[in-house]
Amino acid sequence: MSGHNSVASLYFIVTIAMAMVLRVMSVWPELDPFNPDWIVLALIYWSIALPERFGVFTAWSVGLLTDVLTGRLLGQYALIYALIAYFSIKEHRRLRQFPVIQQCVFVFFCLLGSQSIIFGSESMQAGNRLSLAFWYPVLTGTLAWPPVFWLLRYIRIVARIA
Amino acid sequence: MASLALLVADYRGSQLNALRSLLAFAVYPLQSLASLPVDSFEAISGTVISYVELQKENQRLKEVQLVNDAKLLKLAALEKENIRLRVLLENSFQLGEQVLIAELLSVKLAPYEHTVVVNKGSRFGVHPRQPVLDANGIVGQVIRVLPNSSEVMLITDPDHAIPVEVNRNGLRTIAFGTGQPNRLHLPFLANNADVVPGDLLVTSGLGGGFPAGYPVAVVDKFEARPDKSFANIYATPKADLEKSRELLIVWSDTTPVVIGENNKSKPSAPEQQHVGP
Known about the structure:
The complex is a heterodimer.
Chain A: H1 5-24, H2 38-49, H3 56-70, H4 76-90, H5 92-97, H6 100-125, H7 136-158
Helix pairs in contact in A: 1-2, 2-4, 2-7, 3-4, 4-6, 6-7
Chain B: H1 2-11, H2 17-47, H3 51-88, E1 98-105, E2 115-118, E3 131-133, E4 138-145, E5 150-154, E6 161-166, E7 172-177, E8 184-186, E9 200-203, E10 215-223, E11 232-237, E12 246-251
């Protein structure tokens, strides 16, 4: 199992990088408001699948990179991702037993919490009137969870990461 | 966990540009990768364009070039005259402006914000609060500079305001972004202000951020509100905010950077320093 350590890290980095690319990709500008936070989904998956390997600090680092990537205040996503990773790791035994639909509920609340923190932070920075479209990624992210879950589980099984 | 949150909270509002620049190096390839599909699509559609179309475009561009050349001739004469008149008035005048062409990366940082990323950063001497134009008018201003890229806030962002004046009569005011694409709001004009739909708004140059005299928007709705002290005025930006892929970053003072052909004869004049607001 320990021999797979670097392989697992490699897969983790590649999938997170892909999630980051998807996060800022803008191929159809009309669909931008619906683009979910793919990084959170990937992080939740890896936190549930390999809680002993990818901890809160990893999530925090990913969050810091996301802050730079999306031009937010440094620390905003770091805080959010660290919190989400903490809850995912704490509940990983239960979450693993859940059917995908029930996991969706957990993901929904994670995304709702993270979006609320972003809402607070953005509102603090400016009198920016955020529209209803601000909350769309919560719903699309929840809907995107099953495909992400199946894809990443497939990758994990093929790569034989325990 | 608590210490982590504390550390994060510590980061807020502090100056951590060095760290950000460092991390930006790690993140830049990802941004380029995200921008790749659209870029390659543009490249392909540029390659497979038909010969006839190219010829047509060439013809059209030549005509435009001719017209522009003729206009430039006149502009040069006018500029000289303007400088002479301003010297007579003992007034300072606008120094030459340098531009840098930057290409848009098709990435979206936050869907609820009107910001875009361009592929020129501090390595090209770009600095925050620099005005950004396209061929038709003001696009926005640089808000953050990373080594390889910079973030540009568009004038339609709800947090953006730009000092403008009505080109027809010099009436000065401020235009705010609305958050809707292609819509600006002018909330500080009185009900009896001399503004009619169709008026061109140009930058007034006040505040030091934007150079004076560039077109910003065209007024498209004037709604007098007798019960309020200010009228409701909306305008449509001149710049093609949604479509332009090449933007011009402008140095309105003559800081010595990159391509600059402003070797125009400048009479001795007080060096205008860029003063930020």
